[in-house]
Specification:
alpha+beta; Beta-Lactamase; three-stranded antiparallel beta sheet; 10 helices; rod-shaped
């Protein structure tokens, strides 16, 4: 049964078969006990036996008893004065009921007797009903047993078929979260639908991993290749300034500005490629996030004052974490300078640091135009462009916040953005960086790359 269809078909067919068998057993062994014949009925049977014996002898008695037993669903026996039943060879000393070893046989027997005379000798006609072991179970319990058996089989079948689907679902979530190395065990037999689904998922994940690795390698290689000509162009610009000072205020300044912007973009691409590479290592050490945020804020305040923007800081005395100081300083500086850049002149920017559960949260809020709600998550993707005046007027490359996201996630943290109107400041954007509080049992520092 290599096909999922055949497994489903066989499973449901087997389930129905078990239900039918259970109903058959109910009918065979759990038929309600109708009771023994009344005493008046037994007297009538005894009179008929006396008449048959006078006419035809013992042979007629045995035939009548067999016929009566089939009609009533009981066992009728004729006993002599010593209690011996009438058998095939006349009166015998062993009761055939004692040899009943059938399934569900019970020692409990209900009887009803009535006297009769054969050849002026006292005899007894006895009606017997041997109770079976499950005879007296109530109907509701009988149905419950059938339901339990069928439910157990259905649950086993559903669990067997749904387990690979749950594994594929969990793997899909991890793949969507960026874990390109995730794979699922290839369940089932080769050739069935579940095995094919798992194999196709693994191939898809492998292809995505290869494509992303190729993209990162291409970005890293191109960025490295661009660095050398950019450096030579900057040297050539410096020499040209010395040889032709009269051009410095015109085209030379414009060219130098463009080269600096291109050099900045290349630097950001290299930083992003390093963060996304599998062999990147963090220089982890204990540090005070409050002190780091204050230093970054003080440095950014020089640029902010030139544009008449005030940076307000609300920082605790100490906020210990474990992280890469250079990388976290770059992430904070990137977000803070974006906030200053997009705030109007004059304007204000807020830097708040607080503990929320097991995380320290740095919230940086500006007074810019904000971002459409449906695009708040997209701003952290590389080369993201949002459809609002914030991006059109900014002139950025869409790489800075992607670097921030990778840097914070590399420390086990989270990054999120929301429009500042939701936090009490209007208008503007709030970017929240969450980092784990320093553990009392810190991990050993990772080695250098």
């Amino acid at each position: 049964m290599n096909s999922l269809f055949m497994r489903l078909f066989s499973g449901f067919w087997l389930l129905l078969l078990i239900i039918v068998l259970c109903l058959s057993l109910l009918q065979r062994y759990w038929t309600p006990y109708a009771g023994l014949p009344s005493q008046s009925a037994m007297a009538e049977y005894a009179q008929e036996l006396e008449q048959l014996y006078q006419e035809d002898g013992h042979g007629a008695l045995r035939g009548y008893l067999r016929s009566l037993s089939r009609q009533q669903g009981l066992r009728f026996v004729l006993l002599d004065s010593s209690g011996n039943p009438l058998g095939r060879r006349g009166w015998q000393g062993r009761d055939e009921d004692e040899d009943d070893n059938s399934l569900f046989a019970s020692r409990s027997v209900s009887t009803r007797s009535t006297p009769l005379a054969l050849d002026d000798q006292p005899h007894q006609l006895q009606a017997r009903y041997r109770h079976r072991g499950l005879q007296d179970i109530p109907l509701w319990l009988q149905l419950s047993l059938v339901m339990v058996a069928s439910t157990a089989l259905a649950a086993w079948l559903a669990r067997t078929l749904s387990r690979p689907l749950r594994q594929v679902r969990e793997a899909s979530k991890r793949l969507a979260a960026g874990d390109l190395a995730v794979r699922v065990p290839e369940k089932g037999r080769a050739g069935d639908e579940l095995h094919g689904l798992c194999a196709d998922f693994n191939r898809m994940a492998g292809q995505l991993q290869q494509l992303m690795a190729a993209r990162d390698r291409l970005t890293r290689d191109i960025s490295h290749e661009l660095r050398s000509p950019l450096a030579r162009m900057q040297v050539a610009m410096a020499l040209a300034r010395r040889q032709a000072p009269e051009l410095a205020e015109g085209p030379m300044n414009r060219m130098e500005q463009e080269i600096e912007q291109l050099d900045e973009l290349v630097g950001q691409l290299l930083s992003l490629a390093r963060l996304e590479s599998a062999d990147s290592r963090l220089q982890l050490a204990q540090l005070d996030l409050s002190t780091l945020a204050r230093e970054v804020s003080d440095n950014a305040s020089y640029e902010a004052r030139e544009r008449q923007i005030t940076v307000h800081c609300d920082l605790p005395e100490q906020a210990l974490i474990r992280g890469d100081r250079r990388l976290l300083a770059s992430a904070l500086d990137n977000v803070l300078r974006n906030a200053i850049h997009y705030s109007p002149e004059p304007g204000q920017v807020w830097v708040n640091l607080s503990q929320q559960g097991g995380n320290w949260q740095v919230a940086i809020t500006d007074q810019g135009p904000g971002v459409p709600e449906q695009e708040l998550e997209a701003i952290f993707a590389p080369f993201a462009r949002v459809s609002c005046a914030r991006e059109r007027d900014g002139g950025g490359y869409g790489v800075g916040l992607a670097i921030v996201k990778r840097a914070i996630e590399a420390h086990g943290g989270l990054v999120q953005a929301k429009n500042a109107s939701n936090t009490g400041a209007s208008p503007g954007l709030t970017v929240i960086l969450s980092l784990p509080v320093l553990s009392t049992h810190p991990e050993r520092e990772q080695p250098n790359a």
